[in-house]
Automatic annotation (TrEMBL):
<keyword id="KW-1003">Cell membrane</keyword>
<comment type="similarity">
    <text>Belongs to the MscS (TC 1.A.23) family.</text>
</comment>
<dbReference type="GO" id="GO:0005886">
    <property type="term" value="C:plasma membrane"/>
</dbReference>
<dbReference type="InterPro" id="IPR011014">
    <property type="entry name" value="MscS_channel_TM-2"/>
</dbReference>
<feature type="domain" description="Mechanosensitive ion channel MscS">
    <location>
        <begin position="128"/>
        <end position="192"/>
    </location>
</feature>
<keyword id="KW-0812">Transmembrane</keyword>
<dbReference type="Pfam" id="PF00924">
    <property type="entry name" value="MS_channel_2nd"/>
</dbReference>
<keyword id="KW-1133">Transmembrane helix</keyword>
<dbReference type="InterPro" id="IPR011066">
    <property type="entry name" value="MscS_channel_C_sf"/>
</dbReference>
<dbReference type="GO" id="GO:0008381">
    <property type="term" value="F:mechanosensitive monoatomic ion channel activity"/>
</dbReference>
<feature type="transmembrane region" description="Helical">
    <location>
        <begin position="29"/>
        <end position="50"/>
    </location>
</feature>
<feature type="transmembrane region" description="Helical">
    <location>
        <begin position="86"/>
        <end position="103"/>
    </location>
</feature>
<dbReference type="InterPro" id="IPR045276">
    <property type="entry name" value="YbiO_bact"/>
</dbReference>
<protein>
    <submittedName>
        <fullName>Mechanosensitive ion channel family protein</fullName>
    </submittedName>
</protein>
<keyword id="KW-0472">Membrane</keyword>
<dbReference type="InterPro" id="IPR023408">
    <property type="entry name" value="MscS_beta-dom_sf"/>
</dbReference>
<dbReference type="InterPro" id="IPR006685">
    <property type="entry name" value="MscS_channel_2nd"/>
</dbReference>
Length: 297
């Protein structure tokens, strides 16, 4: 045995037993290596279990969506994301318990860390329980599903996943917002039922109103023949206002959820092309201000 020259003799190394003694604490280096290997194996098994489990869940969800008894793909995807979340937390919990069971190597140190961990878990448990309970209510009440476009407070985007603790939504800029379920108090769901598209066109006062309405309805008919997303065929709603440069005429219709942007753009193109063919003038909603400069002779 080799001992350092410390007069208090608090640090000792025993090469025969492969141990280190610091004060009254004995640490076995060989045992540490064995436990480290076991921890590595546990982490590897956890990783494999999550990967394999997620793959199985994805296959089950796809099989359900493709089945002839399938009703709602969004509900199936939401259930799949929840199952993945349950699997992940379950595997992590079992893995952490297994790792903690190996920490008797350090004796009193492990008890101390366990006590500190217990206090930390107790302090964080309130928010975690709140998140989980609120997450179950979100799913049980079907407030929103994966793929829905929603507003949560000041955040807007498409729901990517609903998990036990958090909901993930991605906005049009590609930013991913991760929101704890316990903080979700007000939700606006834009993906339930048919979505109304309104298109306002400002027409010059010199144009005949009846002719303009006929041309716009003709554009709506052509658009309806090309779109499969129509719930209620678009048509001229009427004149909704008189502006300095022209009259505002609204075209209104309903389409399937999450398709309003592309269908709105497509309908605008049909309207513009039809108006051009009929030589109907579209004016600007912006009031023109003409300033004349008087020259003094």
């Amino acid at each position: 045995m080799f001992e350092n020259l410390n007069p208090f003799a608090i640090f000792k190394i025993d090469l025969d037993s492969g141990g280190i003694k610091i004060g009254n604490i004995n640490i076995n280096l060989y045992k540490i290596m064995i436990i480290a290997l076991k921890i590595f194996i546990i982490i590897l098994v956890m990783y494999a279990a999550v990967k394999i489990g997620n793959s199985i869940i994805d296959k089950l969800v796809k099989k359900h969506i493709d089945s002839k008894f399938f009703v709602d793909s969004k509900r199936s995807k939401t259930a799949g994301e929840l199952l993945k979340s349950l699997l992940r937390y379950g595997v992590y919990f079992i893995g952490i318990i297994g790792i903690l069971n190996l920490t008797d190597l350090f004796g009193n140190i492990s008890i101390t860390f366990a006590s500190i961990g217990g206090v930390a878990i107790g302090l964080g448990a309130q928010s975690i329980i709140k998140d989980v309970i609120n997450g179950f209510f979100i799913i049980f009440e079907n407030q929103f599903s994966v793929g829905d476009y929603i507003d949560i407070d000041s955040k807007s985007g498409t729901v990517e996943s609903i998990e036990l603790r958090v909901t993930k939504i991605r906005d049009f800029n590609g930013d991913l917002h991760i929101i704890p379920n316990g903080l979700i108090t007000k939700v606006t769901n834009h993906s339930r039922g048919a979505i109304t598209i309104n298109i306002d066109i400002c027409i010059d006062y010199s144009q005949k109103t009846d002719k303009v309405i006929d041309v716009l309805n003709k554009a709506c008919d052509k658009f309806s023949e090309t779109s499969k997303d129509i719930v209620e065929k678009p048509k001229v709603f009427g004149i909704i206002g008189f502006l300095p440069n022209g009259m505002n005429i609204r075209v209104s219709g309903k389409v399937k959820t999450s398709t309003q942007a592309q269908n709105g753009n497509k309908l605008r193109k049909f309207i513009k092309d039809e108006l051009d063919e009929s030589n109907i003038v579209i004016t600007s909603n912006v009031k023109e201000i003409i300033i004349r400069e008087e020259k003094n002779e």
